[in-house]
């Protein structure tokens, strides 16, 4: 499979990009080089290799969920720019 200039023009149109003639040629060459490099993977013998999503084993390290005492409202609102009725008051963002 190879990329033609018309393919680059189509993608540029979809992305609403205005490319010069030099850029079209450059991107065509670069994309073809990427495809050629990826095509080398077809030369590998992958028979018997299990599909993976990552080369290393990954696992989540979760801490135990522990209940802690919350800060009192007075202490929390000391850092607030403004407070009203026990809530943070912020400027309106909609008109």
TrEMBL record:
Keywords: ATP-binding, Ligase, Nucleotide-binding, Protein biosynthesis, Transferase. Allows the formation of correctly charged Asn-tRNA(Asn) or Gln-tRNA(Gln) through the transamidation of misacylated Asp-tRNA(Asn) or Glu-tRNA(Gln) in organisms which lack either or both of asparaginyl-tRNA or glutaminyl-tRNA synthetases. The reaction takes place in the presence of glutamine and ATP through an activated phospho-Asp-tRNA(Asn) or phospho-Glu-tRNA(Gln). It catalyses: L-glutamyl-tRNA(Gln) + L-glutamine + ATP + H2O = L-glutaminyl-tRNA(Gln) + L-glutamate + ADP + phosphate + H(+); L-aspartyl-tRNA(Asn) + L-glutamine + ATP + H2O = L-asparaginyl-tRNA(Asn) + L-glutamate + ADP + phosphate + 2 H(+). GO terms for biological process: glutaminyl-tRNAGln biosynthesis via transamidation; regulation of translational fidelity; translation. The gene is gatC. Its EC number is 6.3.5.-. InterPro entries: Asp/Glu-ADT_sf_sub_c (IPR036113), GatC (IPR003837). It comes from the Bacteria. This is Aspartyl/glutamyl-tRNA(Asn/Gln) amidotransferase subunit C. NCBIfam families: gatC (TIGR00135). Heterotrimer of A, B and C subunits. Belongs to the GatC family. GO terms for molecular function: asparaginyl-tRNA synthase (glutamine-hydrolyzing) activity; ATP binding; glutaminyl-tRNA synthase (glutamine-hydrolyzing) activity; transferase activity.
């Amino acid at each position: 499979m190879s990329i033609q200039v018309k393919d680059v023009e189509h993608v540029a149109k979809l992305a609403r990009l205005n490319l010069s003639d030099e850029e079209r040629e450059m991107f065509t060459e670069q994309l073809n080089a990427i495809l050629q490099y990826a095509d080398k993977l077809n030369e590998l013998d992958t028979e018997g290799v299990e599909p993976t999503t990552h080369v290393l084993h990954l696992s989540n390290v979760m801490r135990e969920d522990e209940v802690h005492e919350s800060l009192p409202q007075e202490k929390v609102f000391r850092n607030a720019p403004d407070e009203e009725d026990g809530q943070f008051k912020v400027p309106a963002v909609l008109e």
